[in-house]
Every structure is written in C-alpha cells, then in structure tokens.
Amino acid sequence: MATQHRGFRRKGYDADKPQEGRRPRRLSEYGLQLREKQNLKAAYGILEKQFRRYIKHAHRREGVTADLLVQALEMRLDNAVFRAGFAINRNQARQLVSHRHIMVNGRIVNVGSSQVRRGDVIEVKERSREIVPVVQAISSSSDAARPEWLQVDVANRRAIVVGLPDADKVDTGADMKRVIEFYSR
C-alpha cells in the first residue's frame, strides 16, 4: 500500500485555485511578465519566434520600445483588415488574407504578417466584396471603432493607411511595460 507523503500532489488539487483555508498564491514578477506576454501574443495570434523578431526590431529602432512594438503589431496586414472593419476578429481577418480576398495597392497579398505602410490602399477583392463574413463584419462594425490611422470607405470596401497608429490610443489588453521587461533579461 502506497502512503501519501506531504510533498505529493493529491488528486483534485490545483495549485492556482485557492483551497479552503488557504491563501491564494501570488504570481512572481516573472509570472506576471510571462502572462502579459502570452496575452499579447494571443491577442495578435503570433507565435513566439515571430514575436521575438518584433521585439528585437523594436529594441533596435530609436524611440520607446513599447510604442514601437505596438506600432509594428498594429501595422500587420491582418490587423489592418480587422481594424478597418472588414472582419469580425483577427483570426477571420487572417483567413480573409490567406484565402486571397484582400488586395494591397492593387495586388493580391496572402500573407497576414506583411506590414502595411503609410499610403497603402487595402481593399477587398471585387469578387469577394459580398461574401458573408465581410458583409457581416461591415454591418456589425461602427465608424467610432475605426482607428484614426485608417481612412475607410465602407461602400467600396477600401481602407487607406493615412498615418501611424498612436500607441497610447491602442488597447492591446496587456501591460506593455511588463512585456518589454520580460525580454530585457
């Protein structure tokens, strides 16, 4: 018969869930930084290797690293399609891009991570303008939800990048300071 020792986990025990009569565990600073990084990666649908490249690129450039990181993430094509209101969420925007429904400057682009620049024209292909996901997204989005750095023509399913995103106005859902600290080790 096996005896249960003090250090072993019991069935049904969850370290993160507070037990009766116990104080809830506090996350360490590292744990908090890790959680923020994972939240940001999940929000933009990016894997670790690509996210590290964005961080390195932001570190190399001159300026506030967190702001530069937010700008780089916001200027992804799949995010711009989402922000323009052509898709309900970023996953759907990425699918629209990868299925060749989106054109940039008159050319079909099927890579969601490609960067858009000031002056780029993002539009839904002529034959794809009335597909159900695009119509639903446009009908459910509002002008107030669109960012200032995109000028959107809803009738023609077209958006023009007129500037750079302001990092202060972008709600990433993550504490950018902790994300940058995580990679500054």
What does this structure look like?
It is a single chain. The chain has 2 domains: 29-72 and 175-183, Ribosomal Protein S4 Delta 41, Chain A, domain 1; 76-163, Roll (Structural Genomics Hypothetical 15.5 Kd Protein In mrcA-pckA Intergenic Region, Chain A), CATH 3.10.290. It has helices at residues 29-44, 48-60, 65-74, 77-84, 90-98, 132-140, 176-183, and strands at 102-104, 107-108, 121-124, 150-153, 158-161. The chain has a 5-stranded antiparallel beta sheet with strand order 2-1-3-5-4. It is an alpha+beta fold and 185 residues long. The radius of gyration is 21 Å and the shape is globular. The chain contains 7 helices and 5 strands; from the N terminus they run H-H-H-H-H-E-E-E-H-E-E-H.
Brief description of this entry?
This protein has 185 residues and is α+β, with helices and mostly antiparallel strands. The protein folds into 2 domains: 29-72 and 175-183, Orthogonal Bundle (Ribosomal Protein S4 Delta 41, Chain A, domain 1); 76-163, Roll (Structural Genomics Hypothetical 15.5 Kd Protein In mrcA-pckA Intergenic Region, Chain A). Helix content is 39%, strand content 9%.
How are the strands ordered across the major sheet? 2-1-3-5-4
Please provide the ordered H/E string of secondary-structure elements. Answer: HHHHHEEEHEEH
CATH level-4 homologous superfamily of the largest domain: RNA-binding S4 domain
Task: State Rg.
Answer: 21 Å
Q: Name the CATH architecture of the largest domain.
A: Roll
Give average pLDDT, whole number: 90
Q: Classify the beta-strand content into a percent band.
A: 5-15%
Please work out how many helical segments DSSP would assign: 7
Extract low-pLDDT stretches.
none
SS class = alpha+beta
**SS elements, strand count:** 5
First and last CA, distance? 47 Å
User: CATH first level of the largest domain: which class?
Assistant: Alpha Beta
CATH topology of the largest domain: Structural Genomics Hypothetical 15.5 Kd Protein In mrcA-pckA Intergenic Region, Chain A
Note the overall shape.
globular
Counted up, domains total: 2
Sheet with the most strands, sense and barrel status: 5 strands, antiparallel
Helix fraction, binned, reads: 25-40%
